[in-house]
Design brief:
This protein has about 270 residues and is an alpha/beta fold. It has 8 helices and 7 strands; from the N terminus they run βαβαβαβαβαβαααβ. Helix 3 runs parallel beside helix 4 and helix 4 packs parallel to helix 5. The chain is globular. Bound molecules: nicotinamide-adenine-dinucleotide (NAD). Nicotinamide-adenine-dinucleotide binds next to helix 1 and helix 6.
Length: about 270
C-alpha cells in the first residue's frame, strides 16, 4: 500500500465500527487519509479509531451516530470538519439485512431496512454534499461513495426488501451523480456479493430460521456452487482495493458508476 495515496483526504465512513466499514477505515488511514468512523456503536467505533491511531499514518476519530437521523449525519460531518479542517470524501456504508419471503414482509421489516440502507444514504449524501458546497470549489472533485450490493442488480427471493433498498442505492448513485455534478462532486459506489462479516454471519442464521436453508453455512456453499464465477466467498480485504481507488484521485473522471466486487455473480 502506498502510504501517501490518500494524503489530504478527509473521509467520513458510516457503519465503520466493524465489517467492511472498519476494514476500509484502516486501509484508508494506512494510505494517509484522515478518517471519521461513524456508527451506532460509538464504543466499538472508538476502539477501531484507537487501533488505527496506534498503527500510525492517517488520523482516526469516532462519532456515535444513527444514520437514519438527519441531525446525526449533520453532526458527524461537523465532527469530521472540526477535527480535520474539511471533508472531501463520504463513504456511506452502514447497512443491515433481515430476510423475509415476499408474503411475510411487514411494515417493521420494510421500514427498518429501507431507513438504514436507503433513506440514510440519501441523508448522508445530502448533508455531506451541503458541507462540500459550503467549502467552495476545489481543484479535485469531492467524492461520495455508496455501498450497494449484488442485490442492487439481481432479484433475490429471500430478501425482497434488501433488494429494494439496494436498488435504491444504485439509483441514488446515478441520480446523485447527475444532481451534484455542477458542484464538482462525483458519486460512485461498489457492489459486493458475499462478504464474511457480522452482517452475513447473522444472515446465515436468519436464513435457517425462515426455512430458506437447512443448516448454517449452506447459503455460503450454495452461492459458491451456483452463483459465483470465482469459487469462493469474499472477505473485507477483497473490498478495500476498490474502495481505496474510488476515494483516490485515480477515479476523478468517473461518476455515476457502481463497481461490482462479487466474484462474477452479476454476470451469471
Ligand atoms: N456482508 C456482505 O456480504 C455484504 C454484501 C453486499 C453489500 N453489503 C453491504 O455492505 C455494507 C457493510 O456491511 P457489513 O457486512 O460490513 O456489515 P456489518 O454488520 O459488519 O457492519 C455494519 C455496521 O453498520 C452499523 N450500523 C447499522 N445500523 C446503523 C445505524 N442506524 N446507524 C449507524 N450505524 C449503523 C453497525 O453497527 C455496524 O458496525 C452494508 O451496506 C451492507 O448492506 C454487505
Amino acid at each position: 500500500m502506498d502510504p501517501n495515496r490518500l494524503k489530504g483526504k478527509h473521509i467520513l465512513i458510516t457503519g465503520a465500527a466493524r465489517g467492511m466499514g472498519a476494514a476500509n477505515a484502516e486501509a484508508f488511514a494506512a494510505q494517509g487519509a484522515n478518517v471519521c468512523l461513524g456508527d451506532l456503536d460509538g464504543d466499538e467505533a472508538q476502539a477501531m479509531a484507537d487501533k488505527i491511531n496506534a498503527a500510525g499514518n492517517g488520523k482516526a476519530i469516532a462519532v456515535k451516530m444513527d444514520v437514519t437521523k438527519r441531525e446525526d449525519n449533520r453532526n458527524a460531518v461537523g465532527v469530521t470538519v472540526d477535527a480535520f479542517g474539511s471533508i472531501n470524501v463520504g463513504l456511506f456504508n452502514a447497512g443491515l439485512n433481515k430476510p423475509r419471503f415476499f408474503m411475510d414482509i411487514d411494515e417493521d421489516n420494510w421500514d427498518m431496512i429501507m431507513n438504514v440502507n436507503t433513506k440514510a444514504m440519501w441523508l448522508g449524501m445530502q448533508e455531506t454534499a451541503r458541507q462540500m458546497i459550503a467549502q467552495g470549489p476545489q481543484e479535485k472533485p469531492y467524492k461520495l461513495i455508496n455501498v450497494g450490493s449484488i442485490a442492487s442488480r439481481k432479484p433475490l427471493v429471500d430478501v425482497t426488501v434488501y433488494c429494494t433498498s439496494k436498488y435504491g442505492c444504485l439509483a441514488l448513485t446515478e441520480c446523485g451523480a447527475l444532481g451534484l455534478a455542477e458542484h464538482n462532486i462525483t458519486v460512485n459506489g461498489y457492489a459486493p456479493g458475499v462478504v464474511v462479516t457480522p452482517l452475513w454471519e447473522q444472515l446465515d442464521k436468519d436464513l435457517v430460521e425462515i426455512g430458506f436453508k437447512e443448516r448454517e453455512g449452506q447459503a455460503y456453499d450454495d452461492i459458491v456452487e451456483n452463483n459465483l464465477v470465482i469459487k469462493r466467498v469474499s472477505y473485507p480485504k477483497d473490498i478495500i482495493g476498490t474502495a481505496s481507488f474510488l476515494a483516490s484521485d485515480d477515479s476523478d473522471y468517473m461518476t455515476g458508476q457502481m463497481i461490482s466486487i462479487d466474484g462474477g455473480w452479476v454476470t451469471k
